[in-house]
Amino acid sequence: MSDIIFYIIAVVAVILVIVAAMRFKSFRNWLVFAVSEAEKYLGSGTGKLKIRYAYDLAVKQYPTITKIIPWCVFSKLVDAALVIMRQMIDDNKKIAEAINKKTEE
Predict the structure, then answer these.
(1) Is 87 a domain residue?
(2) Cβ atoms within 10 A of the Cβ of 51, count?
(3) DSSP label of 44
(4) 19 part of a folded domain
């Protein structure tokens, strides 16, 4: 009987890890959106303010994740999202126009 309980616990643990990984991947993808919004709202050259803005958005959207992830890790994730956003801007004129449109106004 204890073997069955062990296997059930193991399966549940694996499912939880998979769900958490999927949720984290979703969070990382969402961060690209958040830094794009921060870029539109604050413009370029506002690095620390952008991180704070993205963090405030993340607290609203993902309250649990922001309690788990330390600030230094969050900051690095934002830096990675900024790299992706800049690549998207370089690769797609429409994205560049959408993000830069607000900052030029």
Answers:
(1) yes
(2) 20
(3) T
(4) no
* 12 domain-assigned: no
Distance CA 49, CA 16 (A): 34
Residue entry with tokens 């830069």: 100
Task: Provide the token pair at 105.
Answer: 């106004």
User: Which residue type does 43 have?
Assistant: G
Tokens at 5, concatenated: 């309980």
Residues in the chain: 105
pLDDT band at 103 (very low <50, low <70, confident <90, very high): very low
Interval 62-84: pLDDT, tens: 888 778 888 888 889 888 998 99
**Sole residue written with tokens 């607290």:** 59
The amino acid occupying position 95 is I
